[in-house]
Amino acid sequence: MASERIDLLIIGAGPAGMSAAVEARRHGLEVLVLDEQPSPGGQIYRNIRESDPQRLAILGDDYSAGRRLADEFIASGARYVPGAAVWQVGEQCQVHYLLEGRSVVVQARRLLIATGAFERPMPIPGWTLPGVMSAGAGQILLKSAALLPAGPVVLAGCGPLLYLLAVQYLKAGIQLSALVDTAEHRDILQAWRHIPKALLGWRDLLKGLSLLAKLRLAKLPHYRGARALRIEGAECAEAFCFSSGGKVHRLPTNLVLLHQGVVPNTQISWSLRMRHQWSDAQLCWRADRDQWGETSLAGVFIAGDGGAIGGALAAREQGRLVALAVASQLQRLDGARRDHLAREPQGALARCLAARPLIDALYRPQAENRIPHNEVIVCRCEEVTAGQVRADVRFGCLGPSQAKTFNRCGMGPCQGRLCGLSVTEVIAEQRQVSPSVVGYYRVRPPLKPITLAQLASQSNHDLSPETP
Amino acid sequence: MPADSLFIQLPTDSPCVMIEFEGQPLAVPSGISVAAALLASGIRQTRRTAVSGAPRAPYCMMGVCFECLVEVNGVPNCQACMVTVSDGLKVRRQQGARALNALAEEGAHDGI
After folding, report:
1. Which of A36, A38, A85 faces B84 most closely, judged by CB atoms?
2. Tell me, what's the pLDDT at A187?
3. What is the band of A1 on the pLDDT scale with cuts at 50, 70, 90?
4. Chain B: residue nearest A233 by CA?
5. Fewer C-beta within 10 Å: chain B N or C terminus?
6. Cβ(A295)–Cβ(A301) under 8 Å?
7. What's the pLDDT tens digit per position in A63-89?
């Protein structure tokens, strides 16, 4: 079959996928990259090749740094299919995707899942109201559409992306109503335990400190240790309420941007029934991988934030390591040469990950914003509250998949992406066991909604030479 | 940009395209997603939920949350953040669940 010609199929054209493609091409592998977005870069380097000087200045050097990798990727000779939504992945590296309303199937010899991260759900009262978005969404609007908040905006939660977005908005001349920070001094004391190791990652630390210094200089209202977060409004967000320093605050606003870190997008790895572990440090699921990124399914690899949160620079190095391992498995490199070439990315990866335990400890999301009160909606699609999930646990429900049959949580179009972690943690708390005992939804294809007509249209991937 | 929009746009070189939202013409910058275009045009609510009819609007802007579902050129439940605007695109709010007999209704309109 002609499809034997694809040595490495990569899902996702973010830093991990692009860097794996570039490295794999260096060793003569035939590479196919599928990505859901219209241009390469993933979310971190979203729209990087189309950005203008004004936006590049606002978004900063870490964003601009993606341009070179994206250009290298485009020039690498890898086949690149933008706008491709993967809806099923088979154990034998067979991938089904939707492209312009038609389903296509492609077979490869090795598979790399480089689907990155999405933002951790932040279920607080009122988070489903129009005018409440994720901070990542705010940044994507800036990257992809040059949009900035027009009026008062509240940024709330914790984590580097929240502070970065605040700095970017300040640079663009946007007046923020407030930065409502759920992190507090106690978190910082906890975090000091990781300092000696984190010094290896001094660049990340300096970056974090300079972000906070810029926020201080801007004299932005910055509330720390915020609790009892709540958005008021009937048909849309009208005010953001919280308590901080013993005082209750109510800030009128129509735009609230929430963030409490990012978590691996594990839809594909769960659908393949890979082994996953609950990470207490990162409060999320991580698929098991060896040092090359190979999973419990032979021939299927994961690189970047889709495996564990490490950031864009770590993702690049992991992508390179996967490409070296695949090149070696397919006899393009002998083991000694692979090990020699891997030394540099392995060293860089260790440096990139050194500060991660500190970041995880510093910006650990608060329990009340992960495991909310009964009245708060956890499943946005099916409008299921935390209280309904708890009630079903009292009826004997043991885990998320069972909860689904009790109350439909996770059965809507997002397929649990925005409630899975909350439902796992709510059940674990109610049962007083670890999330690892409770488990996760049994994720099944289709991973994206597909119509019968699209399914019926399925054809094999066209391998004829593409005109760039 | 309309006065009631939550967002303003930085000056860009991109030309405008004309789309329709609920029958009203909107001039929006080319190359951006339908969700971004609606937000830039001051559209605060883009769908009603299937369960309670509550109003919703784009949330994640990256294809994860499915909050931005709209009807695009008659096709229900399209993710507005994953569709790029183009001239003549007709967009409507997704009002609750899609009609199961949408195709039959379409046929009736066409006189089939």
Report:
1. A38
2. 57
3. very low
4. B55
5. C
6. yes
7. 999 999 999 999 999 999 999 999 999
pLDDT digits (tens, 9 = 90+) for A201-242: 656 666 766 777 777 777 789 899 999 999 999 999 999 999
Cβ(A435)–Cβ(A425) under 8 Å? yes
According to DSSP, the residues that pair with A379 across neighbouring strands are A384
**Residue of chain A nearest B42, judged by CA positions:** A150
pLDDT for the residue B109: 46
Contacts of B69 in chain A (CB under 8 A): 413
* Residues A145 and A79 grouped into a single domain: no
- One domain, residues A77 and A30: yes
Pairwise CA distance, residues A65 & A57, whole Å? 12
Residue among A106, A110, A83 nearest A459 (CA): A106
Pair A245, A138 in one domain: yes
Is A455 a domain residue?
no
Q: Is residue A82 part of a domain?
A: yes
Do B60 and A132 count as a contact with CB atoms less than 8 A apart? no
CB A287 within 8 A of CB A307: yes
Residue A180 has pLDDT above 50, yes or no: yes
How far away is chain B from the Cα of A147, in angstroms, using its nearest Cα? 4
Structural domains in chain B, sorted by start: 16-109 (3.10.20.440)
Task: Indicate whether A66 and A146 sit together in one domain.
Answer: no
pLDDT of residue A41 exceeding 50, the answer is yes
Residues of A in contact with B51 (CB under 8 A): 382-383
More confident residue, A260 or A202: A260
CATH number where A51 lies? 3.50.50.60
Query: Quick check: is A468 in a domain?
Result: no
* Residue of chain B minimizing CA distance to A39: B31
Residue that terminates a domain, selected from A260, A293, A324 = A260
Helices H / strands E in chain B, number of each: 2, 8
How far is B41 from B21, CA to CA, in rounded Å? 10
CA distance A92 to A35: 20
- pLDDT for B98: 86
Residues A83 and A185 in one domain: no
Q: Given this model, what pLDDT does residue A344 score?
A: 98
Which of residues A284, A311, A333 is at a domain's end? Answer: A333
Q: Per-residue pLDDT for A179 more than 90?
A: yes
In a domain, A348, yes or no: no
Q: Is A57 on the interface with B (CB under 8 A)?
A: no
Residue A2 in contact with partner chain B when CB distance is under 8 A: no
How confident is residue B108, by pLDDT bands cut at 50, 70 and 90? very low
Contact between A52 and B36 using a beta-carbon 8 Å cutoff: no
Number of domains in chain A: 3
CB-based burial label for A82 (10 Å; 0-12, 13-18, 19+) = middle
Whole-angstrom distance, CA of residue A42 vs CA of residue B62: 10
pLDDT at B43: 97
Residues 6+ apart with CB under 8 A from A461: A3, A6, A32, A104, A105, A106
Domain span including residue A91:
2-118+263-333
